[in-house]
Specification:
With 133 residues, the protein is of the alpha/beta class. It contains four helices and four strands.
């Protein structure tokens, strides 16, 4: 006996967020990403959030998305926590998300632009820098 596959059309949307960063061996480096995740969880308790890392750190993107999918998430937004938009943000991450979409056709994946491209963050960083004068 087979179980019918759940599709986006008959399942209410359950959206989750993956905060995606480069990774580091230094555990202190992870604190800002974890703080962003904690802020999201506090602001929207019904929105599951996971951190994921490209290399060196764990979990990787596949593991983080698998955790969300296991919790019933069927729409995943990937937020690249990169200030600069280099090869990882332009090429590597879109390919990883394409692979995830191919492996999980029942899940809708959205890749946001890197946070460093957001004019609000650029202005905030400029304001912080100017406060230090």
């Amino acid at each position: 006996m087979t179980t019918p596959m759940t599709t986006l059309t008959n399942t209410p949307p359950q959206t989750g967020i993956v905060l995606f960063a480069h990774g580091s061996r230094d555990p202190q480096w992870h604190k800002p990403m974890e703080a962003v995740a904690a802020h999201i969880a506090a602001a929207s308790a019904q929105t599951p959030v996971e951190c994921a890392y490209l290399e060196i750190s764990t979990p990787d993107l596949t593991t983080a998305t698998d955790k969300l999918i296991a919790r019933g998430v069927n729409t995943i937004t990937v937020v690249p926590l990169f200030l600069g938009v280099g090869k990882h943000a332009r090429q590597d991450l879109p390919q990883l998300v394409t692979n995830l979409q191919n492996n999980h056709p029942e899940v809708r994946f959205t890749l946001q632009p890197a946070v460093g491209e957001d004019v609000r963050l650029i202005q905030l960083i400029a304001n912080i820098a100017m406060e230090r004068l």
